[in-house]
Each structure stands twice: as C-alpha cells, then as structure tokens.
Design a protein that fits this description.
Blueprint: H1 2-44, E1 56-58, E2 64-67, H2 84-94, H3 106-119, H4 129-136, H5 145-161, H6 164-174, H7 184-192, H8 201-209, H9 214-217, H10 223-239, H11 245-253, H12 271-283, H13 289-294, E3 298-301, H14 305-318, E4 326-333, E5 338-343, H15 368-377, E6 385-388, E7 393-395, E8 400-402, E9 414-417, H16 418-424, H17 427-437, H18 439-448, H19 470-481, E10 492-496, E11 502-505, H20 516-526, E12 554-559, E13 563-570, E14 573-580, H21 595-607, E15 622-627, E16 643-648, H22 681-687
Parallel strand pairs: 1-3
Antiparallel strand pairs: 1-2, 3-10, 4-5, 4-14, 6-9, 7-8, 10-11, 12-13, 13-14, 15-16
Helix pairs in contact: 1-5, 2-8, 2-10, 4-5, 4-6, 8-10, 8-11, 10-11, 14-21, 15-17, 15-18, 15-20, 17-18
Length: about 700
C-alpha cells in the first residue's frame, strides 16, 4: 500500500511540475507575443493618416454631377482652440477613462460583452476614442476579423507614437457630425454659426451627442431627440464633476439658435436632387453617413444635365428677382420613372428645404384627372354631360352643406361635357362626379397612382384640398403618359463600392395598373386644355401658353388661393411645377399666377429641343369620332365647331347633333371620319385641336 501511495504521489508531483512548466511556457509565449506586438507597433512608427476617397455622383449621361466635399467642410483646429466644455462633453459620453487607459478599456469591454450576452444582441459599445479614431482612418467599416485586428494594431500604433492630446485632437477633427460636417470646427459653424472655441455648455453638450447617430441626433432632423441626448450628456458631465449642478441646469435651459448652413456653401449641380440621392443611400440602402461622404462610392443617378440646366434657367428667367414666390419642380421619364430634373427652391444656399419632395401643398385642379380617370373606368365618356351652375350640396348624415365655386363665379348655366369640364376646369362638374362615384373612389384611385399623402373623404377633395407632393403628382401623370404602367420616382440606377463591387442596382418590373384605354382617353381629354374648340363660358386653361407649344402635350393646371400648379407631358417626358409662398400667403399679383404655366411650357420646349416630335398613340380598343364639343353628340356638317374625340369602343355617342340642321337637311348628316393611316405628325397635331 505504501509503495502504491508513493508511486501516485510521484506521478502527481510530475503532473504538477508539467503543468507549471506548461503554464510558464504559455505565459512566456503570451508575454513574448505582446512584446513582439508592441515592438512591431513601435517599429512601424506613427501610422500614416489615410486620405478619405471622395464619393462621386454621376448623371444619366455619365458626367460627374457632384463629389463629396472631403475638403470643403473639414477645418482642422488645435485642441486649445476647442471649447473645454465640448472636450469634456465628448470625454464624458464617449470615453471617460481616456487618459487612464492605453487604447483599450478592458473593464468597459467586459461590461459590454456581458450586456450583449444578456441581451443576445449588440446593445452596448466599448470602443475607446483611440479605437474610434483608428476606425475613422479606414475607408470601410466592415465587421471582419481582419479589419478588427488591423484596427487594434492601428490603435496601438496611435497610443505608442502620439500623445493623448494629439489623439484627442485628431479624433475631434475627424469625427462625423452629420450634414457633411467632419470635425468640430465644421460642425460648430454649421449648427451654431460660430467657431468651436466659442461654444457654450449647452451647445457643446448637444454637439457631443450627434456622432453616436448623426441622422438620429441632429437637431435639424429631430430637435427633441437631440435635446434628450444633450440632457444625458450634461448629467454625465455633472457626475464626472466636469461641471457643477448649476452649470448643468443652465445648459439644459439654454436657448439654442440652430443655423443649419455653412458660412461658405459650395453649390454643385442639382443640389436638391443630390440631397434626395444621399437620403436614399442612407435610409433605403442602409449605407452609413461616413461611407456616403468619404467611402469612395460611385453613385449613378437618373439626372439629365440638359433637363436640369433647362429647368434652372427657365425658373430663373421667368420669376422676377424681386418676387418672394418659391418653386418646386420635377421632371420624370414616364417610361421608367427616372427623375431627370429637380428644383426644390429658388436658392439652395438660402433654403435647402426641398419643395419638390418635402412640401405638402394643395394640388387644386391638378387632382381632377385622377378623379376623372376613375369616372371613365365607371363608364363616363368625354361626352358625358352635367349641368354647370351654382349648386349647394346638402348631406343628411351631418346636416352639412357645401357650395363649390368656379373661377370668378362663372357658370355655363347649361349642360357641359366631361371633355369641356376638364379643359375649362369646371369645379361643379368635378364635385358632382366625386359624389356620384362615392368619395371612396378618389381615395382609392390616388393610392393606385402612387400618392404618398392621403386624400380626405370630403366633397372638396375633388378640387384638390388634400395636400400632395410635387414629385408624387408628376409621377401620377407619368402613368397617363406611359399608358397605365406603374412607376415610382427613381433617383439612383446603380451604386458601386470603393473596390468596384456593385452595392445596388435598380431592377425594372413592368406592371399594368391602369386600364390602357381609359388612360389614353384621359390623355386625349387632357390635351383639350390647349384647344380653343372647347371654350365655353370660360376659355380653356392652357390658352395663354398654347402659342409656345410646338408639339403635342397633355396636362392640367391647378389653382388655389396660395398655390399655382401646372403638370403635363409629352410621350417621352412628364414635368410638373408648383409656385407659391412657403407660408401659404395668398397669391394676389396677377403675374405671379402665371409663373407655373410659363415655367412648364418653356421647360418642355427646351428639354425636348432636338428630339423627335411624337404624338400620343391610340390604343387598339379606342376609336375617334368628330363630335360637337358643346353637347357631346356626333357632329354633322352644320355644326360650326367639331372636335375629333376618342372613346373606348362601345361607349361612343350614337346620337347626332341636330342643333344646326336646316329644314332641308336630314337628321343624320354626319361628318365623315378622318383617315388616320400614314398621317404626318404635323397633321396629327392639328387633329388634337
């Protein structure tokens, strides 16, 4: 027994010695590895600061229309030229142990790991300022182990070769604060219109909170979220004894003046358009702000520089410099929804607010074509008549009344046709149609046409009292122009990464959502706004710009007390204009009321100059007839006014006009239908009139 016990004891001692030796070996290996790593980092010396690559934006013709401003909005300032409150605010929220660690806060890393494990998700960050600065020097933010190891080595090199002050200064001059501002000086100038040295406690706390999520905590995008984070930072500063409780309270109560612009703004091609492109990259494609600005992307857009130049020049020429009228403009290729031009205001430097996509304004009578499309689907035809007279509609359910008025309170005091109602924009006809179809019809039709703003179920919605965006309305008219295929506004066709890899590419899907015959009948009726044959108690609404039109167009104008619209199209291009005052002030000057129409027609002429003149091609299931436009009946030889009008087959009028027949003439004396085969374009153009 003693022999066995002694043998076991010797074996145990042997294993213990082996374990100790092995442990010492691994410890030595780890120490040698660390020493080697530190030696390598030291030998490598100060890391070269990577120069960020500009992101390029291309137009549809392949030309560069914009470049990220890697130098325009970066202003390096020394640490002593930065407000101490901003430095303290940044340290309190990003890395309060910055001066005590050597690049890695292992206590914080452990706490973050435990929190992530508990939540089974990434809920807490542990990166120090040194690590973040290292990460900011890379072009990509991918989450591979290779990148993480590189980041760690870079952090070591920073810590070993730079002082804490130098690292902090570099970090504060490279961190992204949103809206294209990199570094505290650019951010201070953009948000508060002052240098970084002049920031107050409240301003410093708000600015320090933005880098965590520039699109979430920018006071321009969400002031309340920015204020909430500011309070968190002020409390953290108080807890770390960087400021007193009195100073914290003062900072929270401080009134902040958010400027939201750079002292020396640099304008590129189509700045409003490019803003939309960047928003899509961030919100729809999920690309982070830093990569958008400095990630070396190639963004291929739908912008047509010729169209954009035409739009900007026409707007500048047509609107008088002294006028305060604003403008929202969009042009779209109806075939695919590509946005070819966009103007969101008269001066981007003065106001980057995009009135083409952000403003929701009453569309007035430009909503009527959507209503009348629903009516045509339900059996209305260009010859459908209703009485135009002052009418008060009474509703039993709530005992309310509604009395729509025509422009200048003029009425036909007689029946008018749908074709005429569109051309002269009769409001009574529109409300009667709206109520006849049921108010739900326009609501549903607007959704079918892609409007992103809801239509209210009220009688006045037929007259465009529910707000809409310019880009949505132009897109809707584009669906008339393309024969009823679904389109949505497209700004980006392809995005390539820094290495040439395709990050995104637009896929095209063709879906018929409108009845093509009804869409064509509507297009032909919308051409009537330029045709004096449809004049009645009022002239057609496009008569003032008819003389400028050299090709077939269809469209509709719209007017409210504070809004003027014109939306229209040729077969290959759709465009829309809104003009008015930002605050909804009434448009009182007569000349201000014609800006939208004039801008539209001159843009269309300029944008399509040199392109083939195309007419709208009838669908197979429609047929044209000469009718008397005043009563919608088939025209006879005696009719002084005859207009060639298209109907869906089977819905054409069967009754002949007998108002102008003599006693000797038969009741049925129709005008022969004109031949359509091989008709030159210039003769087809006259047929529309």
């Amino acid at each position: 027994m003693e022999v066995i016990t002694s043998s076991r004891l010797q074996k145990t001692k042997k294993y213990v010695r082996a374990a100790i030796i092995l442990g010492l070996f691994f410890t030595l290996a780890i120490l040698m590895g660390l020493a080697g790593l530190l030696t390598y980092a030291k030998i490598q010396g100060p890391p070269p600061l990577a120069v960020p690559q500009s992101t390029l934006f291309y137009g549809a013709d392949g030309s560069i229309i914009g470049e990220s401003n890697s130098g325009e909005k970066r202003y390096w300032v020394h640490l002593e030229d930065i407000s101490p409150d901003l430095i303290d605010a940044t340290l309190s929220i990003e890395d309060k142990g910055f001066y005590s660690h050597h690049g890695f806060d292992f206590k914080r890393i452990t706490a973050a790991a435990l929190a992530d494990m508990k939540a089974m998700a990434k809920v807490q960050g542990a990166s120090t300022i040194s690590q973040q600065y290292s990460r900011n020097l890379f072009l990509t933010h991918d989450k591979t182990w290779k990148r993480k190891i590189s980041e760690a080595l870079y952090t070591l090199r920073l810590e070993m070769n730079y002082t804490k002050e130098e690292i902090l200064e570099g970090y504060l001059n490279t961190i992204y604060y949103g809206h294209g501002a990199y570094g505290v000086q650019a951010a201070s100038q953009f948000y508060f219109g002052k240098d970084a040295a002049e920031l107050t406690t409240g301003e410093s706390a708000m600015l320090a909170g933005i880098p965590k999520g520039p699109s979430l905590y920018s006071p321009l995008d969400s002031y309340q979220a920015a204020k909430d984070r500011q309070e968190i930072i002020l409390n953290a500063m108080k807890k770390e004894k960087m400021i007193s409780e009195k100073d914290a309270a003062k900072g929270k109560a401080e009134s902040l003046n958010i400027v939201g612009e750079y002292p020396h703004q640099s304008i590129e091609t189509a700045p409003y358009f490019q803003d939309v492109v960047k928003k899509i990259l961030r919100n729809q494609l999920g690309i982070d702000d830093r990569t958008i600005e400095l990630g070396g992307l190639k963004v291929y857009t739908t912008l047509n520089p010729k169209h954009q130049k035409a739009a900007e020049e026409v707007i500048e020429r047509e609107i008088k410099p002294e006028s305060d009228i604003q403008v929202g403009f969009t042009a779209i290729n109806p075939k695919n929804g590509y946005v070819t031009a966009m103007v969101g205001g008269r001066n981007y430097e003065e106001s980057p607010f995009n009135r083409a996509v952000q403003a929701v304004r009453q569309p007035g009578s430009t909503i009527k074509p959507l209503l009348y499309y629903a009516a045509v689907e339900k059996g209305f035809t260009p010859s459908t008549t209703m009485r135009s007279e002052l009418t008060t509609f009474k509703f039993d359910e709530d005992q309310s009344e509604y009395t729509p008025h025509n422009f200048n309170n003029k009425y036909a005091e007689d029946d008018i046709t749908l074709a005429q109602a569109i051309a002269i924009s009769d409001n009574v006809y529109a409300v009667k149609t709206h109520l006849f179809l049921g108010q739900e019809a326009l609501v549903n039709t607007a959704k079918k046409f892609g409007l992103s703003t809801p239509i209210k179920k009220v009688p006045s919605s037929a007259l465009g009292t529910s707000g809409a965006r310019v880009v949505d309305m132009v897109n809707a008219y584009g669906m008339f122009a393309n024969g009823g295929y679904k389109i949505s506004p497209v700004f980006i066709t392809k995005v390539e990464g820094f290495g040439g890899e395709i990050i995104y590419e637009k896929k095209h899907e063709k879906e018929q959502v409108l009845d093509p015959d009804a869409a064509y009948v509507m297009t032909h009726m919308l051409s009537g706004i330029f045709d004096p044959k449809l004049n009645d108690y009022s002239t057609v609404t496009g008569i003032t710009i008819r003389k400028h039109a050299t090709r077939p167009y269809a469209g509709k104008s719209g007017t409210t007390n504070s809004d003027n619209w014109m939306i229209g199209y040729a077969p290959q291009l759709t465009a829309g204009v809104w003009t008015g005052y930002d605050k909804g002030k009434e448009i009182s000057l007569v000349e201000d009321k014609y800006y939208a129409k004039n801008i539209w027609v001159h843009f269309m002429e300029e944008a399509l100059k040199g392109e083939p003149v195309k007419s709208f091609k009838p669908t197979k299931n429609v047929k044209g007839y000469l009718v008397n436009p005043h009563n919608g009946k088939l025209a006879t030889k005696g009719c002084p006014v005859q207009r060639f009008t298209y109907f869906i087959k089977g819905t054409e009028p069967t009754e002949y006009c007998d108002e102008h027949l003599t006693e000797e003439e038969p009741a049925k004396n129709p005008v022969p239908e004109p031949k359509e085969k091989e008709t030159p374009w210039y003769k087809k153009w006259t047929e529309w009139f």
